[in-house]
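Pipeline run #58 for the internal structure catalog. This entry was flagged by the ingest filter as a single-chain record with no existing model, so it goes straight to prediction. Upstream metadata was stripped on purpose; only the residue string is passed forward. Reviewer on rotation: M.T. Logging verbosity set to normal.
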Amino acid sequence: MNVHEIERGASPHDWRDADDRTLAAAVAAGEREAFVYLMRRYNQRLYRLARATLRDDAEAQDALQDAYLAAYRAIGSFRGDARLSTWLSRLVLNACLARLRRHARRQAAAPTVSISANDGSDLELVDTSHEASPDDALMRAQIRALLERKLDALPEAFRVVFVLRCVEELSVEETAQCLGIAEATVRTRHFRARSLLRESLAQELDSAERDVFSFDGARCDRIVAAVLARLELR
């Protein structure tokens, strides 16, 4: 059974009150609706984790699918020693690392091949919870794209911690459990990631200051044309 077959006709609300062990047991017993709800419950967090690790939208989505398939096969072994979200996060990280290793091997065999850079076209992270004007939506998309580019430039260790702590708002303890690192390491990487982002964004703003209220190009042409037109009418 693949993910697409499972999703068809599923009701994602039947398992809202289930705890981790009950939900895992239902999935292990072949309850399709339980598995669909599990995926919908954790999709955003796990996608963001994969995206922060791989820096590529398509690769992150493929890794997430791989992780879900691995989870479906292995969920019978889940005993509740850690949170289900933590267990799933580790599977996602394993899937991401496997992809990175495969890519490294391909790079070694054919150095001219490279993973395509993210073009920022994925709009799933845009907040659509309220109506907004096209200009507002465009502005948010541009800001989001800028932040994603700056995040992509961070070292992986800092990038992943930042996403879990600031984007997903996990606690220090939850982040440490998810990544299998010490809480002190989480704090250090989080602080360093924020510092690097601030520096990078400040440089971007410094460069943009010279272009504030720019009055060249098409805007300048329109004013000149409008004035000439008014003079001709008089």
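catalog note: The chain has two domains: 1-117, 153-234.
catalog note: The radius of gyration is 23 Å.
status: ready for reviewer M.T.
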